[in-house]
Every structure is written in C-alpha cells, then in structure tokens.
UniProtKB/TrEMBL annotation:
Superkingdom, taxonomy of origin: Bacteria
Residues of the Phosphoribosyltransferase domain: 112-240
Pfam family, one: Pribosyltran
Organism for this UniProt entry: Aminomonas paucivorans DSM 12260
Bacterial purine repressor N-terminal domain mapped to chain residues: 4-73
Gene Ontology biological process terms from the UniProt entry: regulation of DNA-templated transcription
PANTHER family listed in its UniProt record: HYPOXANTHINE/GUANINE PHOSPHORIBOSYLTRANSFERASE, PUR OPERON REPRESSOR
Keyword set, alphabetical order: Glycosyltransferase, Transferase
Name under which the protein is recorded: Phosphoribosyltransferase
GO molecular function: DNA binding; glycosyltransferase activity
C-alpha cells in the first residue's frame, strides 16, 4: 500500500476521524502503508498539528510498547462559539416560536449536518471525564447523544417511556415531573452494568425532571454519573432537578410575551 506521502496522510487522517477516541495501532499503520514506525510517528505529528490548527481536537500518542494513537475531540473555543452562534441565530427566528415559550428544533437535531457538530461539541466538553457509555431518553435526545457517543468512542444507552418486547428485560424507574405527575422510564438490562461511568445527554431541559429520571436509572444500575450535558436549557426556572449540568444553548424570555431568545451558554 506504499504511495505518495500526501495520499498516506489523507488516508491516515480519515482513520482517526472515522473512529474518534479509538486506539489506532502505529505498528499496524506502518505495516499497512509499508513504512517504518518512525515515518508513521512523523505523519501523526503532521496530522495532529492540522487538527489542532482547525480547532477540532488532538491526537494523543501512547509511547508504550503497543504504540497506539487516538483522536480526542477538543473543539477550540472560537470554533465552538462560531458553530453555536450560527445555530442560535437560526433558532431565534420568530417563526420557530411555539406555544409555551418553546422553539422548534426537531428539523435541526435530526439533520446529521447539525447533529454531528453538536455531538462533537458535546463530546469535547466531556472528553476529560472518559465515560464508558452515553445515556439519553427517547426520542429527540437520541441524535445528539448518538453523535456524542460516536465522538467519544463509546456505546449509547437509551431510556424509553414504554417497554417493548424487542428490548428484552428492562428495569423500570418512577420519577416525578415538574407538573407533579409521576412517569416511568425503562432501561434494558443489557444496555448498562454496574460500575460504568455514564454521561447523560438530554435535548431540552426546563425543570430537569427527565434528566433527573435518567440519574435515577443510573443509580438503580449502580453506575457512576460522569456528567450531564444538555442541548438547550431554559433560563427559567433557575432551580433545576439536576444539581449540575452543562448546556450548549440557553433559551430565555425576550422582549414581549411572544418572544424568546436563544444564545450560546456560558
């Protein structure tokens, strides 16, 4: 497979991008491209510099006996701000206003162009906690959570609001809503296990009851919650059912009763 260095760099970079957060053996790369490990190491440094210049992340190299490397999503602040400000501008369009002070965003999160970027940003904000699994709830939380799981190189576990025979055995957890009702959430017993580090991802948080329900699910399985990430969090109420979380966007009341504003979260 020996070829021009430019071609080799492109093909190596594609392997890191297609499998983020997953170890790539430098020995295997050297064998595949019929070059020495020294040449491969030099190539990895060039790719790492290019990714860093683009503000997407870094390639971490294990200098141990196995000699592997993996791409870690670390979206630079200015890149993240540019992406989120563009999205906030789209969501602030008055035509997206819904009853109850909500905004319509389903078309965006179910568009892979937006969902992949959001998942990448979410993963970069939690790459330091090194979760074993990403957890979300059906339905609208799935796209962002799935792309975040892909970027982190871990599986996705989905909490459902009704149990299906095709999901197999499940654990049921009851949790209160902000309206005072009690809902039930199900998690398949094969999706999560004791001792796993869980990153909870939700699409929208007003009072935080759904995210709090997922925390109860994690506790029921004996898993450790490594963090809570939210796509859009409402500014009010300030007191949430979840004590700590990181949101990408904030939804707040604008000037007038029929106006809302979406801005990047601090």
């Amino acid at each position: 497979m020996r070829g021009q260095r430019t071609e080799r760099l492109v093909r190596m970079a594609s392997r890191f991008l297609l499998g983020p957060s997953r170890q790539v053996s430098l020995t295997e790369l050297a064998g595949d491209f019929e070059v020495s490990k020294t040449v491969v190491s030099d190539d990895v440094e060039i790719i790492d510099g290019a990714f860093a210049e683009e503000g997407l992340g870094r390639i971490l190299v294990d200098r141990g006996r196995c000699g592997g490397a993996h791409f870690v999503p670390q979206v630079r602040e200015e890149v993240r701000s540019r992406w989120l400000e563009n999205l906030a501008g789209i969501l602030s369009d008055p035509e997206r206003l819904l009853a109850g002070g909500l905004v319509y965003y389903s078309d965006l999160i179910f568009d892979p162009r937006f969902a992949s970027s959001l998942g990448f940003i979410m993963a970069s904000r939690f790459s330091d906690v090194k979760p074993d699994v990403v957890m979300t709830s059906e339905v609208k939380g799935i796209p962002v959570a799935l792309f975040a799981a892909h970027a982190l190189g871990v599986p996705l576990a989905v909490c459902r609001f009704r149990n299906r025979p095709s999901d197999g055995p499940a654990v049921a957890v009851h949790f209160p809503t902000g309206a005072g009702d009690v809902r039930t959430m199900y998690m398949g017993t094969r999706q999560l296990s004791r001792g796993k580090k869980v990153l909870v991802v939700d699409d929208y948080m007003r009072g935080g009851s759904t995210a709090a329900g997922m925390l109860l699910v994690a506790r029921e399985f004996g898993a450790e919650v490594a963090g809570v990430g939210v796509f859009i969090a409402a500014a009010e109420p300030r007191q949430k059912a979840v004590p700590q979380y990181r949101s990408l966007l904030t939804l707040s009341q604008g000037q007038g009763r029929m106006n809302v504003e979406v801005t990047p979260a601090n």
